Each structure stands twice: as structure tokens, then as C-alpha cells.
């Protein structure tokens, strides 16, 4: 579905935006019926950027925690000792 709908809409928006030198919402003024596509693209971009900020925060959290000794997720950490089993 992405190939048949998403890619053509993406290419059409790029070509119209390049020609009209406008953003994703105002590029669809030539066809008011499709104006919701530009708004939808902005909403999806905003949600994806929020989602990736959470992933980046997790990355920095685990990077900073990996410099501790013992590692907080290892069996040697005091809170984990009762839960770990020796193999």
C-alpha cells in the first residue's frame, strides 16, 4: 500500500512544493480536497519526532548507566541479588 499510495503522494508533494516553494500544508491549495494530506503529514511527523525523542532518551539513559560498576541490570547489583539465580 505504501508503494501505491504513499510514494506517489510523497513525490507529488515534493514536486508541487519545489515548484511553488511552499510547505506541506499550503502546497495543497491547488486542490482543496487534498488539503488534509498536508495536515496529516504534519501530524504524523510530529508524532514520529516525539516517539524518536523517547528512544534517544533511553539511549542516553542506558549509556550513562553503563558507566556504573556493577551494572544496574547485572546480577551483582544489590537490588537484583534476590532475583538472580546462579547457573
What does this molecule look like?
This protein has 87 residues and is mainly alpha-helical. It has a domain at 1-59. It is built from two helices and no strands. It has helices at residues 2-20, 35-65. The longest helix is centred in the middle third of the chain and has 31 residues, at 35-65. The chain starts with a helix and ends in a 22-residue tail after the last helix. The mean pLDDT is 81.
Name some characteristics of this structure.
87 residues; mainly alpha; 0% strand
Outline type: rod-shaped
Measured as a percent range, the helix fraction is 55-70%
Number of distinct helices: 2
Taking the alpha carbons of the first and last residues, their distance comes to 49 Å
Order of helices and strands: HH
Average pLDDT rating: 81
Percent of sequence in beta strands: under 5%
Instruction: Tell me the structural class.
Output: mainly alpha
Rg calculated over all Cα atoms: 24 Å
Low-confidence stretches: none
Most strands sheet: none
Number of strands: 0
The quaternary state of the protein chains shown equals single chain
Keywords: Membrane, Signal, Transmembrane, Transmembrane helix, Transport
Main location: membrane
Subcellular location: Membrane
GO molecular function, one term: amino acid:sodium symporter activity
